[in-house]
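ARCHIVE CARD
Drawer: 12
Card no.: 0347
Subject: one protein chain, sequence and derived structure
Cross-reference: see card 0346
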Amino acid sequence: MDLLATGTRVDLVLSNLLLSVVDGFTLFAHVKKHFPRVPFAFITAITDGKVREAAVRNGAGGCLLKPFTKQDFLALVRRTIGRPPRR
């Protein structure tokens, strides 16, 4: 939140759902409200599909379940920032 407030250009916010200071959904709500053009995606170890579905339903670019492969990670990033997959 502090970095975004400085005006630093941010191309993507990639956050865990479980964080120490605020939870990922709180961070997501803040970014969505104050920086709506910044793409946002989650990474999580939470296996409850309803939690992951809620993230996407509320506007996140995706929610990747840990552990994941490099290919899955890159696909999430590309999908979230709107770039087509590389072949």
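Annotation on reverse: The two ends are 35 Å apart (CA to CA). Residues 31 and 38 are 7 Å apart (CA to CA).
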